[in-house]
Amino acid sequence: MSCIDLHIHSSYSNDGEFEPEKLVDQCLARKIKYFSITDHNCVRGIHEAKMYCKNKDIEIIPGVELDCTFNSVDLHVLGYGIDYRDPVFYEIEEKIILQEKTASRERVKLVRELGIDFSEEVIDELSKNGIITGEMIAEAALQFDREQKNSLLKPYHENGPRSDNPYVNFYWDYCAQGKPAYVEVEFIKLQEAIQVIEDKGGVPVLAHPGKNIKENGALLEAIVGCGIKGLEVYSSYHSENQVQFYSKFARKNNLFLTCGSDFHGKTKPGIAIGDTSCGENEKEIITELMEIINK
Questions:
Q1: Residues 6+ apart with CB under 8 A from 83
Q2: Sign of the C-alpha dihedral, residues 264, 265, 266, 269?
Q3: For residue 129, what pLDDT is reported?
Q4: Other C-beta atoms within 10 Å of 140: how many?
Q5: What are the tens digits of pLDDT across the range 182-210?
Q6: Quick one: which of 24, 87, 21, 81 has its CA closest to 48?
Q7: Which residue, among 62, 214, 200, 41, has the nearest Cα to 131 in the 3D structure?
Q8: Helical (H) or strand (E) element with 8
Q9: Same domain? 286 vs 197
Q10: Domain span at 69
Q11: Which pLDDT score is estimated for 2?
């Protein structure tokens, strides 16, 4: 178990479960020394967590995870050390919320057209801000299919091949970019995300490249060429081979390395705070990051 976790989501993310204060308590219980709440296009949980951390043996690094696109590829960029009080982050969040409300209705329609049904009441209970994510649909659908009669859902039920993180795996299989229930939302461009983060005093880091980019070296180089300063090398999604690939790439291109679990709670039950290990590189990672954001 690691003493740092720089990628954690609170209930301010549509797919996050726990309030910021509860996340701090969980970090303390797992002996985390440095952490970052990086909600999707949202910074509202940072102040709460920061206040709760006072007089506790833990340090929070202000962060955010911005959805963006590069050459029609959806990406997630983490921003560390940002001025989270700046209104630009609230403007970005509001624009995404408005789009996501419309996309939610289409997402529900497309999933049902695939032959997957669920209760409207359950969906309404799960929904936040009128937004319905692929993970919420998965949770409602699996409840609806308690008798496991739907062959499309069998992989996500207990002991199925996709049951380790059933809700998010459903999202990646059906609602992610290129999948049958994908609904496009117009995110900001990668270059704009990087600019916003840097203008607000932060450093941009490419999140879990193994999920979006795989080992596409040419695409990775093009993305880094836009101004990315670090890679989330150690991620709960990465295999050992991917860790080695991204570590080598980062060091070759003078990028700093980060480590994060992408903890959400029930959305990703197979992921726990601090479970993503960066081995002997903990001190290097946190020292380099703190030096960069404190310049």
A1: 62, 200, 201, 202
A2: positive
A3: 82
A4: 26
A5: 999 999 999 999 999 999 999 999 999 99
A6: 21
A7: 41
A8: strand 4-8
A9: yes
A10: 4-86+188-293
A11: 84
Q: Which residues pair with 76 in a beta bridge?
A: 67
Q: How far apart are CA 77 and CA 193, in angstroms?
A: 7
For residue 128, what pLDDT is reported? 86
Structural domain includes residue 139: yes
In this structure, which amino acid lies at residue 294? N
Q: Predicted confidence band at 212 (pLDDT cuts at 50, 70, 90)?
A: confident
User: CA angle 75-79-84, nearest 5°?
Assistant: 130
Q: What percent of the chain has a predicted confidence (pLDDT) above 70?
A: 100
> Given a cut of 80, is residue 1 above it in pLDDT?
no
**Of 136, 153, 175, the domain-final residue:** 175
Query: In the β-sheet with 203-206, what is the strand arrangement from edge to edge?
Result: 188-189, 63-70, 73-80, 203-206, 230-235, 256-260
C-alpha–C-alpha distance, residues 138 and 144, integer Å: 10
Contact call for residues 157 and 172 (beta carbons, < 8 A): no
Which alpha helices (H) appear in the chain, and where do they start and end? Answer: 20-29, 44-52, 87-113, 120-126, 134-144, 166-170, 190-199, 209-212, 217-224, 240-252, 282-293
- Tokens, residue 159: 């002991």
* Residues 149, 284 share a domain: no
* Cα(15)–Cα(248) distance, integer angstroms: 32
- Domain total of the chain: 2
d(CA 244, CA 269): 25
Could you tell me which residues come within 8 angstroms of residue 216 by beta carbon, excluding any fewer than 6 positions away?
Answer: none
Q: Which two tokens stand for residue 236?
A: 């709960």
Residue 60's H or E segment, with its range, is strand 59-60
- Cβ count near 21 (within 10 Å): 15
